[in-house]
Amino acid sequence: MAHDASVDAGLREHAPLALVPPAPHYGTRSDSPGPRGCWARKRNGEPCGAARRADSDYCTAHSGLGVAKDPAKWAAKGGETNRRRAVLRATLGLTRSSTPRGVLKALAFAEAERVAAAALAPIYDSDLSASARAKAALAVIDAVDPPMQASVEVPFDAQGIEALSLSQLRQLAQS
User: Which residue, 20, 76, 126, 166, shows the most beta carbons closer than 10 Å to its own?
Assistant: First the structure.
């Protein structure tokens, strides 16, 4: 049964205020509550699926409270927060991957301080020899700042290389 706003208006004129249920701040009142208690009906005609507030027949959004009180203000804040989070995730290389490597990466990030302390622990271990501590320190340096490596594939055969001049060979070596 479709809800008609004119019926609400007629009820308000002729019924005592205690009998007329209040209209939601946004949307229309439904004939029955949605699955989680909100009595509002969405624009597409479906009942709202949000939880009803304890002090109202409606959820926070249909009561016009919280974000619904000033959506434009919160949209700008939400957009900026989402942008910052996306930049942070991209910078850290975090993905929502469900692969073992992705999960391990997320957990390692969550325990970043402990992981770093464990990686540095051998450097400070006085029971290890100086050379073992130095080797551990070099391993940490290689992990956080790997040495640069370059490789060049030359699309020439042996005769093609022999045909290059000395300056051409130097240019090839520099690149």
Answer: 20
Interval 119-161: pLDDT, tens: 999 999 999 999 999 999 999 998 888 888 877 676 667 677 7
DSSP state, residue 146:
P
Burial zone of 52 (CB within 10 Å; 0-12 exposed, 13-18 middle, 19+ buried): buried
Which residue, chain included where needed, has tokens 């208690």?
37
Gap between the Cα atoms of 136 and 98, Å rounded? 32
Q: Return d(Cα 61, Cα 79) in angstroms, integer.
A: 19
Nearest to 65 by CA among 40, 36, 30: 40
Residue carrying the six token digits 């949209």: 75
* C-alpha separations of 69 from 25, 26, 47, 61 in Å: 9, 10, 21, 8
Residue 84 β-bridge partners = none
pTM over 0.70: no
CA atoms of 43 and 24, how far apart (whole Å):
13
